[in-house]
Design brief:
Elements (H helix, E strand, L loop, with lengths): L1 E2 L8 E7 L5 H6 L7 E7 L6 E5 L2 E5 L1 H4 L2 E3 L1
Antiparallel strand pairs: 1-6, 2-3, 2-6, 3-4, 4-5
Length: 72
């Protein structure tokens, strides 16, 4: 299983699911639901945070949050 935190820059992938946590509802509200295509746009120099493209908008998130998102 790969997570969004492990995806290299500019690679597109699809969300498979989100690990159960208190952040899951918030991540779903932001558009990170199964089947959605996402692309990693930016990684900070030490890797945290990252920015991803979801349906034309840019979302910044911590690696701890990105590790909750399972991708292809």
């Amino acid at each position: 299983m790969r997570t969004l935190a492990q995806i290299p820059l500019h690679e597109k992938t699809k969300v498979l699911g989100i690990t159960e946590s208190e952040l899951k509802p918030k991540l779903l509200e932001m558009g990170l639901y199964p089947g959605k295509e996402v692309e990693v746009l930016f990684k900070a120099p030490f890797g945290d945070p990252i920015a991803v493209d979801i349906s034309g908008y840019t979302l910044s998130m911590r690696l701890s949050e990105a590790n909750l998102i399972e991708v292809e």
